[in-house]
């Protein structure tokens, strides 16, 4: 990145004034990356840097083509102040969204705008080294074809399912080889810092940093897809819990002696209100001739596409498909009412495949919440569908970088 190189070894080699100055540069770049263009006075107040020192550092960052003037801010009397922001293509972030059966890749610039087309690849996540090698080859090839200088890639952000320990870069469910964290293996092979986060938590960060939850302190993001993921922003911070696994909402037992869940317990929320359950009910309806839903069970790898067909059928007016979503929404509402009474959130954001059914899922969810949650607590907890649509996963990967890319420099 021109004259400002993001390398922890540089911090370790610097001393005294030069070290302090380098750290201040990193803090300014992070502030502009996370919150966008700002005035000098706002940066001084936020970062507690004197005005003369701030002007000197900003001037150096402008000369290094890392930041630039982005117009003028509001005036409270007198001349309008200049706004400083990051140069759009000063650096970029590689976003990688992984699901159980698919990997998607795209590049985003310093303004969090996508600058290359998203490419999707069929990949079945597992714990085979060959799978990781294949994903690494896909990423290296993608960067090369993009024409972007790899030196400009600030970091790679990965959003993926499973029990993810983001602090140590380990996914205990997928791509776990026991010797080195998956982030270290990828960094060694690709040559860029790599950060990983559970998909629902990454989506919570995307909503918090870039979406409808920006500026709010207490939000819940529910990833209603094949399973049910939960990301929690509590008091303005992503909540991970002691081991990093907080949010396993899907595997809380709700029914005594209920259906066997894939986690090994009986009657989990996932068995009552997930994409898995929706598809099971759809398959039962097809066998009994109750519905027009078209399903093809010849290849389990494409069950995700079958779930899409169920959602489409409901939106097209298939009464059995609508009934399935209504039942699912009622069960979700009951489960969400527990979250509302525990955390008293300001906002609950729904994303994922089931959220794409719109009112067909949100109306019964609200009905379930109204039935099971205390009115005094639930009436201020708004339930909305993400404004990002299918792109929420990719923006989640970007937000993972926003959250982590500068921390090791500042911690030093």
Q: What do you see in this structure?
A:
- It is a single chain.
- This protein has 412 residues and is α/β, with parallel strands linked by helices.
- It has 3 domains: 79 residues, Arc Repressor Mutant, subunit A, CATH 1.10.10; 131 residues, Nucleotidyltransferase, domain 5 (2-Layer Sandwich); 176 residues, ATPase, nucleotide binding domain (Nucleotidyltransferase, domain 5, 2-Layer Sandwich), CATH 3.30.420.40.
- Helices cover 43% and strands 18% of the residues.
- It is built from 15 helices and 15 strands.
- It has a 5-stranded mixed sheet, sandwiched between helices. A 5-stranded mixed sheet has the order 13-12-11-14-15, covered by helices on one side. It has a 3-stranded antiparallel sheet with strand order 1-3-2.
- Strand 4 and strand 5 form a beta hairpin.
- Helix 9 packs across helix 10, helix 10 packs across helix 11 and helix 11 packs across helix 12.
- It is globular.
- It starts with 7 loop residues before the first helix and ends with a helix.
